[in-house]
Amino acid sequence: MQMKKFKGTGVAIVTPFKNDSSIDFAALGRVINHVINGGVNYIVAMGTTGESVTLSKEEKKAIISYVVESVDNRVPIVYGIGGNNTQEVINCIRQADMEGVDGILSVAPYYNKPTQRGLFQHFKEIATCSCLPVIIYNVPGRTACNISAETCLELAHSCNNIVAVKEASGDMAQIMKIIKGKPENFGVISGDDMLTIPVIAAGGSGVISVLGNAFPAQCTELVSQSLKNNFKSAREIQFRFLEMIELLFIEGNPAGVKDMLSIMNLCHNNVRLPLVPVTRTVHSRILKAIEELNKS
Predict the structure, then answer these.
(1) Could you tell me the CATH number of the domain that includes residue 19?
(2) Does residue 42 have an active-site annotation?
(3) Domain containing 57: what range?
(4) Could you tell me if residue 79 is inside a domain?
(5) Catalytic residue among 5, 60, 137, 182
(6) pTM (two decimals)
(7) What residues pair up with 190 in beta bridges, in sequence order?
(8) If I label 200, which of 62, 160, 187, 228 is the partner at 20 to 30 A Cα–Cα?
(9) Measuring CA to CA, how many Å separate 48 from each of 40, 54, 149, 155, 235?
């Protein structure tokens, strides 16, 4: 039952910043309304796309409070709480105000390079202390640490509070092993916009999207058609957005999607160091791609 809240299209929303790098709550509200009006199934706040690693504890507290108020029970909310210090992650979960929050997304520990046993113990401790369902997040391209299919399945079968994995390894063989061996009520969520269709076709439950910040209706329709096994219709949407998805990441996330949102007048094109905005060349490509999509 818990996993049903996180089926379909989730969007890892950006954290908009003003020109002085302070949080732009008005723009955050516009983005939230934009994605909900686009039909998405749930929102992920303070994930990678939300630049969570550059936010202070006070800012995170203010953001989640604002997100809960702005969403106003229209869709479920997932709160990104992760790190490479297990006890600190647990402390953050225990100290956070979870009123109005439906789940936690927790990334694999980065930099430390733990063993598979270390990864298992890390997530087991988090699941034990969390009052909310946990989605584990595997993104070895950022963490230098892959959660193997075996470790993921061990967590899925032994921790009832771990309800899904956001899989961004790009390894379809690994993803299919997880889908094959998972409990029935455990979700496998694509963490890569480009692999949404293959993951769902293999038995996955949806996507946590970056593209959905800018194009929520199209992402939602793509996922909906895929879940109905209408892959011809889903492919038509995916192929229209192939270049756009590439442009999201070519100079880093969320630099690409914030440029798109700026063109759409939803938020300023500001990121926090060490990230920087996309170059003029990429901006021109994004602008042209949006114009082409608007024509079609």
Answers:
(1) 3.20.20.70
(2) no
(3) 2-231
(4) yes
(5) 137
(6) 0.97
(7) 167, 207
(8) 160
(9) 18, 10, 22, 23, 26
